[in-house]
Amino acid sequence: MRRRTAREVMIAWSMVAFGASCTSATLGMSGVIGVSSALGALGVIGGARVAVAADKDAAADRPWMNTALSPDERAKLLERAMTPEEKIGLLHGKVGTPFRGEPMPDGAIGSAGYIPAIPRLGVPALQESDAGLGVANPGNVRPGDDATALPATLGLAATWSPDLAYRSGVVIGNEARRKGFNVMLAGGMNLARDPRNGRNFEYFGEDPLLAGTLAGEAVRGIQSQNVISTVKHFALNDQETGRLSLDARIAEDAFRESDLLAFQIAIERGKPGAVMCAYNRVNGAYACGNDWLLNRVLKGDWKYPGWVMSDWGAVHDLDYATKGLDQQSGEQIDTQVFFGEPLKRAAAAGVVPVARISDMVRRVLRSMFAAGLFDTPSDEGPIDYDAHASEVRKVADQAIVMLRNEHSTLPIARSTKRVAVIGGYAEFGVISGGGSSLVNPVGGPALRVPLGGEGQFAFWREINVTPSSPLRAMRALVSEGSEVLFNDGRYPSDAARLAASADVAIVFGLQWMTENFDAPDLTLPHGQDELIRAVAAANPRTVVVLETGGPVLMPWLDKAAAVVAAWYPGQRGGDAIADVLFGVADPGGRLPITFPASESQLPRPQIPGYGPPERLPVTVEYREGSDVGYRDFARRSQKPLFAFGYGQSYTTFSYAGLEVGGTTDVTVSFTATNTGMRPGYAVPQIYLTGGPGGPDRRLLGWGKALLAPGESKRFTVQVDSRLLAKYSTQARGWQVAAGKYEIALGASAEDLVARVQHELRARKLDP
Ligand code: BGC
């Protein structure tokens, strides 16, 4: 059957929503639900058509349509023209799907959130969709509308490639816009303080510089398509256990140097139109009603000009309006629509200053103007899913981390006679993570495996398999006369029998993760360790392919010849796995998160609050402070299973020529050379290893390049001075102490090959 274009799907969907009385001709005009207004026949989609209509009368009665003015000036003009009702209307929104017996809101095209248009003034509706792994379609609310499924964000982080992060953002933004969305709830970037966090796959790992840089680039990519992106979940939403009640506690200086710094870097780089505040409490106060976090840090110290939207169900009080929250999302989930009538009354009574209402409104409008929501023509062309699939295949290729490769087991020769493939639904595809970020992949899921279970969000407990079969991809790659045989892995003995008969055995290890649930430990579920052990015992040339949401333990490691971490590799994940295993692509990934040797090495061997009884208030004390992940391992001299930054290539590199310059602004230069026989990705990394205060470990920068055999490349990195500084709460800012610093070059946080001592002058920087 011919695939329907996104527009056709939307039209079909609209007909269902409106019943047969809507003619397809009418719907065909706009392709979306029409909004009757002064704009007549023009529908409202992402603001674009409104903009076209509005342009005409810009000069006369819509001065905010003057594109020569700044977004701030335009927002001010428009806000002044709004009635109190119109202003309040912009500050709260419904779930954008049918919800608890209520129909889908009029005008919504079906997604996480919706804020109606103001046709009188040409203000477009906000059509808000999840998110960072592609355009979601919750509960198939837009029947049959699928989208490119991107690799897990943790995989994107494993590419260490700002360029691929940007390009991933472009893919998401382009599809979002063509489907009629203008706000993406993307930019998930909580730090991986706990490798068991159910949402780590949606985030960028454990380091503030890597996470902030790549998240910023992903946001920039989305917004380049005239779609607003958030960053989320601000802040310290670093575990799912107790997620609605969790009180995450941390000292201010440590907070500024870790989770906050990650957001700060992403915001500076990506300029997201909105920041989504988190469910949890931060040092006692809920994140969405946290005056210190929102007013003092985000809007005060960082001068963030956009708006703060709540997470869905994260608003508990009206006074959040004065604590820094600008917009209540998914309002039916909260106990009240606080930012509706109650806010209007509070403003009329002077309880919430009228100036604050103006500020809230202007922040929303300002981001809408800045992202081009008022000015850009509508964009309903077909989506080039094939082009997007090749884009995300590149990401998946470069995300794969080769953790082990004894006796050059990898790459597998294409002429290998008998290849055994075991487990992992490999005949169907690759798994994806669950929750609000789940994307209905192009072609639809190849398989859905309900896991059962009870309680809230039990409906999320279903493994969705993206239709990119590694088995099929491998069969397409091997030479004529070679066989690739499959066993589903249910019985270790059976799998071992097949493995024993093959020249090489490839066994999959899956760890499905989802929003709302942490993993109790780092064991591969469903007894897969036993399967892997049996296969590895039967065939010394056993390759383990992990599709996981983060680190797992590998009790069979010394028996496995090779191990690769493929994360959740997305729409073309099967091809990417085959590419890397058979040497079509070099494994370009490096770990963005430490793989511990056991849970006992973690700052909290147990997840606070995990297990029954659920829903008790939970507190987590981040006593490790800013020493997240590898920093904590270094401080406590612990040896992880695999270090942050680690990953092998099919070639070898030398990293050398480390030079450090500057006494205030520091520049680091270094050279990578491909010393092997194949092209491969070099990812040289620069770490701070000591300062006047003693030993330290902190990523300062890195380079990434595909180098041909014999090729060298010199990199120069401008170091962000905040990474050399400590945050001082007394001095209210960053302080670089005068003295000697040690800067190292290496292939991971643990494998450092050169060190330079460097003298710095004292320096103070704004918060
Ligand atoms: C999630 C957010 C998501 C929102 C809307 C919440 O449950 O925490 O990440 O954007 O729902 O779907």
Give the low-confidence spans: 1-54
Strand arrangement across the biggest beta sheet: 1-2-3-4-5-7-10
N-to-C CA distance: 57 Å
- Determine the number of helices (DSSP H or I, runs of at least 4 residues): 21
What percentage of the residues does DSSP assign to strands (E)?
Answer: 15-25%
Globally, the shape reads globular
Averaged pLDDT: 92
| Largest β-sheet summary | 7 strands, mixed
What share of residues is helical? Answer: 25-40%
Tell me the number of strands: 32
Overall radius of gyration: 26 Å
- Strand pairing plus helix content: what structural class? alpha/beta
Task: Describe the model.
The chain is an alpha/beta fold and 767 residues long. It has 21 helices and 32 strands. The chain has a seven-stranded mixed β-sheet with strand order 1-2-3-4-5-7-10. A six-stranded mixed β-sheet has the order 11-19-18-17-12-16, sandwiched between helices. Strand 24 (685-691) and strand 25 form a beta hairpin. The radius of gyration is 26 Å and the shape is globular. The model is unreliable at 1-54 (pLDDT under 50). Beta-D-glucopyranose is lined by residues 112, 130-131, 185, 232, 311-312, 436. Beta-D-glucopyranose binds next to loops.
Q: What is the topology?
A:
Layout: H1 6-18, H2 24-30, H3 48-56, H4 58-61, H5 71-80, H6 84-89, E1 94-95, E2 113-115, E3 126-129, H7 153-158, H8 162-178, E4 183-184, H9 208-223, E5 228-234, E6 247-249, H10 252-256, H11 259-270, E7 274-277, E8 281-282, E9 285-286, H12 291-301, E10 307-310, H13 320-323, H14 341-348, H15 354-370, H16 385-399, E11 401-405, E12 418-422, E13 430-431, E14 447-450, E15 462-466, H17 470-477, E16 483-487, H18 492-500, E17 504-511, H19 528-538, E18 542-548, E19 562-565, H20 573-581, E20 619-621, H21 630-635, E21 653-661, E22 667-674, E23 680-682, E24 685-691, E25 694-702, E26 705-707, E27 712-718, E28 726-728, E29 733-736, E30 739-746, E31 752-760, E32 763-765
Parallel strand pairs: 3-4, 4-5, 5-7, 6-8, 6-20, 7-10, 12-16, 12-17, 17-18, 18-19
Antiparallel strand pairs: 1-2, 2-3, 8-9, 11-19, 13-15, 14-15, 21-22, 22-27, 23-26, 24-25, 24-30, 28-29, 29-32, 30-31
Helix pairs in contact: 5-15, 8-9, 8-16, 9-11, 16-20, 17-20, 18-19
Bound molecules: beta-D-glucopyranose.
